[in-house]
Amino acid sequence: MIAYDIPFNRAYTTGNEVTYIQQAMQQGHISGDGPFTRRCQAQLEQITTAHRALLTTSCTHALEMAALLLEIKPGDEVIVPSFTFVSTVNAFALRGAQPVFIDIRPDTLNLDENLLAEKITPRTRAIVVVHYAGVGCEMDAIGQIASRHDLPIVEDNAHGLFGLYKGRPLGSFGALATQSFHETKNISCGEGGALLINHPALVERAEIIREKGTDRSRFFRGQVDKYTWTDIGSSYVLSDLLAAFLWAQLEARQEIQRRRQRIWETYDRELSGWASRAGVQRPTIPSHCTQPYHIYYLLMPSLEARQRLIEHLKSRRILSVFHYLPLHLSRMGKRFGGQPGDAPVTEDISDRLLRLPLYAGLQPEEQQRVLEAITAFTP
Ligand SMILES: Cc1ncc(COP(=O)(O)O)c(C=O)c1O
């Protein structure tokens, strides 16, 4: 195992995480839905303008809740990008749905809205969008197509907390949206997530599904005198110990975002000359999108150049990583009928994309080392 001097990600802590965890212990409420959970949820509602936010054990679980809430059944079709994390699709496959993979735009790497209408059939039940790197999908066009066909949108907003599309927060467009607080995300509690509910009619059932299929949330609010099994569900509630950790991060969001913005902008500025000489594409951020500085990536001219740059950085003890492999070409994707050529942009981008170290604690001299190593490389 190589010991990297500059890892791809290093968990950033604000210093208050332990203080708040101790507070949760002193308060004696370390299971879910305690005071820290309520604070985090209220903050998420404020940031995203979502009607309701519920903390969950992961973004994966929030996506599973979305599939349950939309009553996805065997034989239903769900439109999903192939260029995404497995959970975006798996959550719906778990309910028996057939994923219908859609390609991405070559600029933002988001679902290509121009291909959406032709993917819709009488069996389509939902459209799932992923805001890659927290840069908004073309929600105006996607929203119009979805409402024309009366289809719900689910936003997998794992990357996109603080992102805006035409001034409106990501996570507020879909009937449902999901967040991740995994260690690699801007705001983290190790493992965690949230379901955002913009459709008020779904709130009550979401609370039940999240609480093992019981009306325990209503019981805690004093609305019923005992709680019972009322629906299907599972255990998707985050411990208040983790919510305490998350609260420290949410409180420090401005500092975290300021640091990430400085690092992202330094990469983009310092690599611009090298990238244009070397035929390397930098990220595209449309002027109507405000991004949350989640990922800095390079699109190398070829797979071979990408692999050589990874090795070159590795020889200088810097870890850079590729990202999603096309899901339609995975073993499961092929079982759903995926074939080479189904999503040509995804297949091409997946080979050429490289992510650079980006975390709030990356020091200027460390970033300088990364920049010097990259600009000394010829693709
Ligand atoms: C787009 C996307 N969706 C979902 C997830 C799953 O998040 P979690 O690890 O919180 O389940 C990830 C993980 O990084 C992701 O990139």
Mean pLDDT rating? 97
Give start-end ranges of low-pLDDT stretches.
Answer: none
Number of structurally distinct domains:
2
Report the total helices. Answer: 15
Question: Largest beta sheet, briefly?
Answer: 7 strands, mixed
CA-based gyration radius? 21 Å
- Report the helical percentage: 25-40%
What's the CATH topology name of the largest domain?
Aspartate Aminotransferase, domain 2
CATH superfamily of the largest domain: Type I PLP-dependent aspartate aminotransferase-like (Major domain)
Q: What ligands does this structure carry?
A: pyridoxal-5'-phosphate
Strand order of the biggest β-sheet: 1-9-8-5-4-2-3
Number of strands: 12
The SS-based structural class is alpha/beta
Indicate the overall shape: globular
CATH class (first level) name of the largest domain: Alpha Beta
Structure description:
With 379 residues, this protein is α/β, with parallel strands linked by helices. The chain has two domains: 17-251, Aspartate Aminotransferase, domain 2, CATH 3.40.640.10; 253-320 and 356-375, Alpha-Beta Complex (Aspartate Aminotransferase, domain 1). Helix content is 39%, strand content 13%. It has a seven-stranded mixed β-sheet, with helices on both faces. The chain has a three-stranded antiparallel β-sheet with strand order 7-6-10, with no helix packed on it. Strands 11-12 form a two-stranded antiparallel ribbon. Helix 6 links the parallel strand 4 and strand 5 (153-156). The chain is globular. Bound molecules: pyridoxal-5'-phosphate (PLP). Residues 58-60, 84-85, 87-88, 130, 156, 158, 180, 182, 193 line the site of pyridoxal-5'-phosphate (PLP).
